[in-house]
From TrEMBL:
It holds the Pfam family UPAR_LY6. The lineage of its organism: Eukaryota, Metazoa, Chordata, Craniata, Vertebrata. The gene is LOC103054673. Residues 21-112 form the UPAR/Ly6 domain. It is found in: Cell membrane; Secreted. PANTHER family: SPERM ACROSOME MEMBRANE-ASSOCIATED PROTEIN 4 (PTHR47613:SF1). Residues 1-20 form the signal peptide. This is Sperm acrosome membrane-associated protein 4-like. One of its GO terms (biological process) is sperm-egg recognition. It is a lipid-anchor; GPI-anchor.
Length: 124
């Protein structure tokens, strides 16, 4: 019975690994002030990004979110309250890769479940 439960956990972990890309979302911050983030799933064709807004040569605005892949490594000109600023998109393609923490430091729940289940099965 224990082996069957362990096998089910491994299968569930493998199914979850194929789920949508997860990215941090920070709707808006200025002058690099820390921003409250949440985790959001991306839609097909989107990647994680950190978006910087610059005006007069200064980084003023920062956001994090999922963006269409065609925005990556491009600049857009936008305006807010009649002030024009340039946005640049720094993109990445791993779960939660648009954080300040190195992507390799993240261990997803499915991977952790698979490792734990394999260890548990070895004990039986």
């Amino acid at each position: 019975m224990g082996k069957v439960l362990g096998l089910c956990a491994v299968v569930l972990a493998c199914i979850t690994i194929g789920s949508a890309l997860q990215c941090f979302q920070c709707k808006f911050t200025i002058f690099n002030i820390p921003c409250h983030t949440s985790v959001v799933p991306c839609e097909g064709g989107q990647v994680c990004a950190t978006i910087h807004g610059r005006a007069a040569g200064q980084k003023l605005i920062k956001r994090k979110n999922c963006v269409p892949q065609d925005k990556c490594n491009k600049n857009d000109t936008e305006s807010f309250l009649s002030i024009k600023y340039v946005t640049s998109y720094e993109c990445c393609e791993g779960d939660l890769c648009n954080s300040a923490i190195l992507p390799s430091a993240h261990i997803s729940l499915p991977v952790l479940l698979a490792i734990g289940s394999t260890w548990f099965l070895g004990l039986l």
